[in-house]
Write a structure and sequence with these properties.
The chain is mainly beta and about 290 residues long. The chain has a 16-stranded mixed sheet that branches. The relative contact order is 0.20. The chain has one domain.
Length: about 290
Amino acid sequence: MWFVFFFMFLVLVPSYGSALTSYRGTYDLSLESASPGSGKTQFGTTIRSAEGTLIISRQHDCTGSALAESFRVILYEDNGEQWSIENEGTSWESPDHQEYQFDVWGRQNRQLVLKKRGSAQRQDNGDLLVNFHSHFKGQQTITLSSADHPLLLPVQAEQIWMTLAQQGKTIINTQAFEPNLDDLRANVSLFVGNKTHKTQQDALTHYAPKTPNNESHSVPCAHKACDYWPLLLGYHHTNATQDGAQTPFFEARYTIDEQGVLWAAQLKYDGFSLNVQATELKSLKDMRSDCP
């Protein structure tokens, strides 16, 4: 199995009636846990440590929402070998959720395993018409049906999920477009935990222990008390039932503030998990105030 970092993870945030802030986040990656035999270089080896960086940039303007991410980690194994994973991607989604553009690539041990660039257009019947070029399969045009389950674009999914969460629903299951996957879609389950209220210093100390001062952080909640939500996101193959009964192939636990800023996370892959901790959270200018 090869590993990807999913766009839905980056946009899924509990806005709860407030606008999502534009920001750039830098995060340290480290090993949380690893199962015996989790190594990738040789059968029977085990991952003993990991180090890496995640960078997220989210910008809103009158034309839509733009997202960029860079994910790099090195896994160190008990046989002295190491395994590198790199993923980068950009995306844009129109305000009416009718158009989506993406450009993604991934490498493992410097070998290209993913490279796609294209767009998705919502059709009158709700289907998605996807035109893209794959490094491995060439130019493709695929229609993704919404007949059985509404197929949501990432920002669209976030808004619907959070509306349901505001209404008190804590378990939400949908199907979402995901360009990193071979079949371009996944069943996604979301579990919303109880809201907590923290002072800025409590949040910095708990979620960003390497930088427990607001000099490294200019996002709003680094300078005032805010509400935070724990969330659990699970990705299931589309042949799984919508009730989420099948074990997810990717799972993320994370903490988001009321402005939609990611502070901390745990990413669970097959055989190992990574910790994600914020080291720099910077606000970016939000251009929506200039919209007609």
